[in-house]
Amino acid sequence: MNFVDSTPLCGYRRIVTISAHSDLFADFFQETADQLAPLYKDSREDAPENVLSHYPDPVEVVEALRLLIDLILPGRMNADSFSKDEFGIFLTQRLSESWSHLRPQIERSLPFRWVGQAVTTEGGCAPVEDVHAEANRVMKAYFSKLPMIRDLVVDDIRAAYDGDPAALTFAEVQMAYPGLLAITAHRLAHELYLLDVPIVPRVMSEWTHSQTGVDVHPGARIGRRFFIDHATGVVVGETTEIGNNVKIYQGVTLGAKSFPLDEKGNPIKHIKRHPTVEDHVILYANSTILGGDTRIGCGSVIGANVFLGKSVPENSIVTTMHPELRIQQQRGEGNCQEKEK
Fold first, then answer.
1. 82: Cβ–Cβ under 8 A, 6 or more apart, which residues?
2. Amino acid 3: pLDDT
3. pLDDT category, 330, cuts 50, 70, 90?
4. pLDDT tens figures, 34-43
5. CA–CA dist 150, 183 (Å, integer)
6. Arch. (CATH architecture) of 55-215
7. Edge to edge, what strands does the sheet with 247-249 contain?
8. pLDDT higher than 70, residue 115
9. Distance between CA atoms of 265 and 245, rounded to whole angstroms?
């Protein structure tokens, strides 16, 4: 049972829980709470000590993303069935539901355009006078991009089917492939990133990371017919640029080298830190490609386990020199008996 004490605790009313052990440990709990309280802040600034009361709600953001994925890939997130005549109603409902979940979180996120730590460090940004109206403008612009996203994802489905000999139906690609879920969620998050929405796109991408093992920053630019085979362990950094008809395998990293600092020791943001991958490139398992100046030329193949920090020209094949294998016969017969003749 809970009751609310009006005594402020770090800007909040203290909530006291009565339980079987309260009498035994009440003083200890109060002492610990008093030690914790000064370590929290409740301000409109962007501070590491802040509690999250005024921030976007990640649960609502994820629910909006799930609804939008279901809009782009009907049936992937929800098994509800509908007739052809009802499909228009389904689309309208998903649009309405996702708007209801997402728009308030967009409004909560927008002040970080001008109070976020990076922007204040770099010189600041003028606040928007009417945040509510700006949230509506962003949402309308975002929803206008949904047909384009659907078109891109259909091409991604085709790329997965064409790129995987184990895929026997488009249906299994749509329903089962984690790489398709990852790229669909990325395309949805990326458009919010382009609209300069703070925080929300990153919440979307990290939920996707937790679900699929694919960590694609919402800022990464990815072309048409993109396929991530097996998906697990893929990392694609914020300023990565990927062309059309690119295929990557599990464990691929498109990352940054060490990044420069300003005169105060702060990391310099908004510079090109990650590679550019041109059209028709294949990146095999566990290859690592680093650096904003690194460009993988059109039609190139980067072999498994390659560690690359420089550009390669078009139609290159890059492989590593593998260590020499040593194969030794076991002593004795082991567990395998000679087959009867």
1. 89, 90
2. 33
3. confident
4. 999 999 988 8
5. 11
6. Orthogonal Bundle (1.10)
7. 227-229, 247-249, 282-283, 301-302, 317-318
8. yes
9. 40
pLDDT, residue 9, reads 41
Question: Are both 55-215 and 233-322 of the same fold?
Answer: no
Quick one: what percent of the chain has pLDDT higher than 70?
Answer: 90
CATH 3.40.50.300 fits 233-322, yes or no: no
For strands 253-255 and 235-236, give the pairing.
parallel
Q: Where are the domains of the chain?
A: 2-39, 55-215, 233-322
If you average pLDDT over residues 74-79, what whole number do you get?
85
Residue 4's pLDDT is what?
36
Q: Is 123 exposed, middle or buried (0-12, 13-18, 19+ CB in 10 A)?
A: exposed
Residues 6 or more apart from 187 whose CB is under 8 A from it?
Answer: 72, 149, 152, 153, 222
**Distance (Å, rounded) from C-alpha 253 to C-alpha 304?**
11
What pairing do the DSSP bridges indicate for beta strands 301-302 and 282-283? parallel
DSSP class per residue in 241-297: EE-SS-EEETT-EEE-----B-TTSPBPPSS--S-EE-TT-EE-TT-EEE-TT-EE-
What are the angstrom distances between the C-alpha of 59 and each of 101, 102, 236?
9, 10, 24
